[in-house]
Amino acid sequence: MLQQLQSLVNTSEQCDLQKADFVAAARSFSFDEQARIVPPTSGGFSSAPLAMTEHSLRQVCSKLGAAVFGKGTSKGLPHDYLSAIPKDLLADNLNRHLTASNGNKWMVRGYGESARAVLAGNYPGGTDAAGDFENTQYLRAVTTLAEGQLEQFPDMKLIRPTITADDLHIKMTWRDVDTKGDGGNGNYGVGVYIGNGEIGNRKLTVYPLIQRTSCTNSIIFSGENGLEMVHRGSLNAMRIQFKAAIGRIFSASAELLDKMIAAEEQTIPDFEATLAGLALKHGWAEPVRDGVFIGTEGKQTRAAIVNGVTYAAHTAVGDAGEQVEMEILGGAILTAPDSLFTQAAKAYRREQAGIEVR
């Protein structure tokens, strides 16, 4: 496992070599005739223009809304219009609005020749003394934790970890639990999910996790035992809370396992209508609905629904972030009140009868 973690660190380090942050007053930036962001000259050196990604253009539209609609507005510039007009006209629009940016600071995050994000100037990002950006720093913290716990938890393993230039998703279990008492290798692993985004697309999160050892279904719990931090304040303070949350979750995941064991015995009445109602509620596309049904393994319990949702997460959903959202939904269904299932079945029956679902 340590080799896997080190490989992820190496990948993240390679991504970091192409990253650069530019922090300055918003009006210090400009847009060239191709609507690329031009960072201000610093220390006598100029930087190459950065082509906006779809994500960074949406962020620019949001940030410049106040220049048109006034301070405190929630309105942004019309993205559909701005993304459709010629680049030179887009640049003229954005440059004009930049002059009314009222002294706001921006952090433009570059990756190669692209502007991957346009964030507030006080965003707690950037490199540390070793030149590591945030995702690499968190990966190093996880690696240090794992090195110190391997002797106590020899079962420790990673489940489908991913690292990109922008996003981090780590699922790690440290102990297998034999819930049936038959001396086997265990039915569940208990552990932690760690996620982060460097472009303002997701919070730093540390959540309890339980893992079915007979497959690769992960159940993630976004509750009071976890950590969910927006990117404000000191990055060092965030790292301290990050490490403390991982330690706290060591015991929290074991408690949540008890809920899963109980869910294996809880039969859900009107099971098919309940499943259809949940599909209706969450807007599942047909491949996801099919994946959930297959993942129930023919059982009709609360645990079967949880297993179905988490099975669909890694068989019917391609994006790593969306997979995690489905796995978090599995955790929410596990801990939801029984009324969730009766309401879902009722909603499906109403929909089938042509009655408006409320």
Describe this protein's structure.
The structure is a single chain. By secondary structure, the protein is of the alpha+beta class. The protein is 44% helix and 19% strand. The protein has 12 helices and 13 strands. It has helices at 2-16, 54-63, 65-69, 79-84, 87-98, 134-149, 235-263, 271-282, 286-295, 302-315, 320-335, 339-352, and strands at 19-25, 30-31, 37-38, 51-52, 105-111, 114-120, 157-158, 162-163, 167-177, 188-197, 204-212, 218-220, 227-229. Strands 7, 8, 9, 10, 11, 12 and 13 form a 7-stranded antiparallel sheet that branches. β11 and β12 (218-220) form a beta hairpin. α1 (2-16) runs antiparallel to α6 (134-149), α9 crosses α10 (302-315) and α10 (302-315) packs antiparallel against α11 (320-335). The longest helix has 29 residues, at 235-263. The N and C termini lie far apart (48 Å). The model has no long low-confidence stretch (mean pLDDT 87).
Spell out the blueprint of helices and strands:
Elements: H1 2-16, E1 19-25, E2 30-31, E3 37-38, E4 51-52, H2 54-63, H3 65-69, H4 79-84, H5 87-98, E5 105-111, E6 114-120, H6 134-149, E7 157-158, E8 162-163, E9 167-177, E10 188-197, E11 204-212, E12 218-220, E13 227-229, H7 235-263, H8 271-282, H9 286-295, H10 302-315, H11 320-335, H12 339-352
Parallel strand pairs: 4-6
Antiparallel strand pairs: 1-5, 2-3, 5-6, 7-9, 8-9, 9-10, 10-11, 11-12, 11-13
